[in-house]
Amino acid sequence: MKALYWIGTSLDDLRAFPEAARREVGTDLRLVQRGAEPRDWKPMATVGAGVREIRVRTGDGAFRVFYVVESANAVYVLHAFQKKSQRTAPSDIAKGRARYRLIP
Q: N vs C: which end of the chain shows fewer Cβ within 10 Å?
């Protein structure tokens, strides 16, 4: 099972999600740790090479998590946020990019 590494405030941001969203994201991250695909995702090349976005929708809204699998042993969680509009906010993409550059 791959280790999860939280970059910046991504863990605290995820912990601020409503319980249902946290549970859904947790399930998807466990799938990624085991080498499987999350249930709903899309590539986010605008953030960085190999970055993917986990997409979760609950009664509380739409939630997203940027992550990248950098090796056979590591998954880096870059950013977790609630999506407020159709397009991903430029500030969320910028935050993901900045954290992507922090991966050792």
A: C
- The answer to whether 5 and 78 have CB atoms below 8 angstroms apart is no
Amino acid 36: pLDDT: 96
What letter would DSSP give residue 72? T
> How far is it, in rounded angstroms, from Cα 83 to Cα 26?
18
pTM beyond cutoff 0.90: yes
Among 35, 51, 39, 50, smallest CA distance to 1 is for 35
- The pLDDT tens digits of the residues spanning 54-77 come to 999 999 999 999 999 988 899 999
Tokens 């799938």 identify what position?
31
Residue 71: per-residue pLDDT: 83
Q: List all residues 6 or more positions away from 44 whose beta carbon is below 8 Å from its beta carbon.
A: 51, 52, 53, 66, 88, 93, 96
Cα distance between residue 48 and residue 81, in whole Å: 17
Token representation of residue 49: 């090479």
